[in-house]
Amino acid sequence: MRIGTGYDIHRLGPERKLVLGGLEIPFDRGLIGHSDGDAVLHAITDAALGAAGLPDIGELFPDDDPAFAGADSAVLLAAAMGRVRERGLEVGNVDLNVIAERPKLKPYKIAMRDRIAAILEVEPERVSVKAKTREKLGAVGRNEAIEVHCVILLEERSR
Ligand code: MG
Fold first, then answer.
1. Do residues 44 and 77 make contact, with C-beta atoms less than 8 angstroms apart?
2. Highest CATH level, class, for 2-156
3. Are 4 and 152 spatial neighbours (Cβ–Cβ below 8 Å)?
4. pLDDT (tens digit, 9 = 90+) per residue, 65-76?
5. What is the helix (H) or strand (E) element at residue 77, kind and residue range?
6. pTM score, two decimals?
7. Distance from Cα 156 to the centre of ligand 1, integer Å
8. Ligand 1 center–CA 154 separation, angstroms
């Protein structure tokens, strides 16, 4: 077994779609980023790459490379998972803390879990999405950003 951790934070800004965990979520602002800004998928990508001993997301998909401008982070995660599988590894489970003051994410947790499981090509039971707030503290608490922490377990392929 191999374990990895991932972290990401993106600022919220106007005139952006909010894309989080591979879902479009109705909100008056979205995450600012070179790609679609999906901090959930970025944290998972980095956790999986880290667990597999591969280069991090910034090295594989540089944010100054025009090829990744506006990129769908689901495509980037799927590509990273291809690299992980080449190493004979599969996802055991993924556990996420998604920290946002607003929008309230509780109504989206199940859909987000299912979407992430589909991107990872695993059963939904292997993915956990926990929605938290920052209790109004700091940048996330002021609703200026959304922050994500991820832990992933990879297992050598036997199934
Ligand atoms: Mg990011």
1. yes
2. alpha beta
3. yes
4. 998 888 999 999
5. helix 73-86
6. 0.96
7. 27
8. 21
